[in-house]
Amino acid sequence: MSSIADQTISALRGGHDALVAFVGKLGQEDLVRPSGASDWQVSQVLSHLGSGAEINLAALRAAKSGGATPGGDFNKSVWARWDAMSPAEQAAGFVESNQRLVEEYEALDPTTRAQLRIDLGFLPEPVDVATSARMRLSEFALHQWDVEVGFDPSATVSAEAVALLLDNVGAMLAWTSRADVLGGRQAHLTVRLEEPSRLFGLRLGERVELTDAPERPDGELVAPAEAWLRLTVGRLGAQYTPEAVRLTGPVSLDELRSVFPGF
Q1: Hey, which end of the chain has fewer CB within 10 Å, N or C?
Q2: How do strand 187-194 and strand 219-224 relate by DSSP bridges?
Q3: 162 domain-assigned
C-alpha cells in the first residue's frame, strides 16, 4: 500500500505533466493574460511556481546531503532572477525547474521517504517528506488552477490534489482566515462536502475554526470539496462558484468569502 508521501509525490507528477501540457499550447499573448491570482498575469504565476520549485529543491537537496538550507538571501536572489525574465522565459523556466523538483522527489527511495527530515527555512522544525511534498502540492495545485481559470472560468482543482489537501485545511485557518471582518458577529455552520464527502462544523467567532458538526447549527454550507478548498484560500469569487454551492443562515456567501481573503 502506498504511503501518503508516495501519493503526494504522484500527485505532484500528475499536476506537473498536466500543467506543462497546458502551458505548451499557450502563445505570447496568452502568457500575459490575467490569471486567477489577484494582480498576476499567467506568466507571473508560472514564475512563482518555477522559483518556488528552485527554492524547494535547494531545501530537499540540503536535507539529503546533511547541509544547511539556504537562507533568505538565497530566496531573494532566486525571486529577483525570475522577476527579471520575460514571460516566455518564465514559462519555459517553470517547465524545467518544476521537472527537476518532481524528479528529485520521485528519486527518493522508500526508506528516505519515511525517514528524511527537511528544513524548509520558515517552520519551527524540519518536516517529513510527506509534509514537505504536501505543502508544495498545495501551492502547486492552487496556482495550477490560477493559470487554467484564466482561460476557463469553470476550471477546478484536480481531484487527486483535493483528496490529499482537504483534511489539512483546519490547520491553515489561522493564516488563511480573518474573523474580524464580521465585526464581532458569530455563527456556527454545518459544512457538508461532496467528492469526497465530509461533514463538520465551521465556527465563526473570535477566531475561525473547524469543529465537529454542530447539533443546532446556525446555517449550512453545502459544496463540492474542491470549491470549499478554493473558498478557504480566496479563490471562490462569484464568477468561479459552481451552482452546487449553497449557503443558508446568518452569513452570506460574500461575507464568507471575505473571511477567507486568500493569498
Answers
A1: N
A2: parallel
A3: no
